[in-house]
C-alpha cells in the first residue's frame, strides 16, 4: 500500500471525526481518487489492506473488494437479473392491486 493511500485514509478519517475542516467536494474528490487507485490492486492485496487502514479508507476498501468479488462471481449477473425481475413483479402487483 502506498504512503499516499494511507495519508488519504487518515485525511478522510480526520474529516469524518471533525478534526479537520474540508469542503464536501474535497472529501468526494479524495474518496474518488482512493476508489480509482484501489481499482489497480488485486483481490489479495485488498484483503490484506483491510487489516491496516484507517476506518474511512476501510469502508472504501471493503466496497471495492465486494464489487470485485461480485463481478468475478459467475452467477452475479443471474442474481441481479433475478432480483430485478422479482422487484419489478412486486411493484407491478402493487400498481394493479394496492394493499389494503
Tell me what the structure shows:
This protein is mostly helical. The chain contains 5 helices and no strands. It is flat. The mean pLDDT is 76.
Query: What coarse outline follows from CA principal-axis ratios?
Result: flat
Average residue pLDDT? 76
Strand content: under 5%
Order of helices and strands: HHHHH
Structural class assignment: mainly alpha
Number of strands: 0
Note the total helix count: 5
Span from first to last CA? 56 Å
Features:
single chain; 100 residues; mainly alpha; 5 helices; 0% strand
Give a nutshell description of this structure.
With 100 residues, the chain is mainly alpha-helical.
Topology, please?
Elements: H1 3-16, H2 24-38, H3 43-49, H4 55-72, H5 76-96
Helix pairs in contact: 1-2, 1-4, 2-4, 3-4
Amino acid at each position: 500500500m502506498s504512503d499516499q493511500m494511507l495519508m488519504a485514509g487518515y485525511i478522510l478519517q480526520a474529516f469524518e471525526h471533525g478534526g479537520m475542516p474540508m469542503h464536501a467536494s474535497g472529501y468526494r474528490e479524495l474518496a474518488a481518487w482512493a476508489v480509482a487507485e484501489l481499482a489497480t490492486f488485486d483481490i489479495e492485496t485488498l484483503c490484506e489492506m483491510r487489516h491496516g487502514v484507517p476506518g474511512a479508507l476501510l469502508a472504501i476498501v471493503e466496497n471495492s473488494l465486494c464489487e470485485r468479488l461480485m463481478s468475478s462471481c459467475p452467477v452475479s449477473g443471474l442474481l441481479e437479473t433475478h432480483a430485478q425481475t422479482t422487484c419489478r413483479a412486486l411493484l407491478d402487483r402493487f400498481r394493479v392491486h394496492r394493499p389494503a
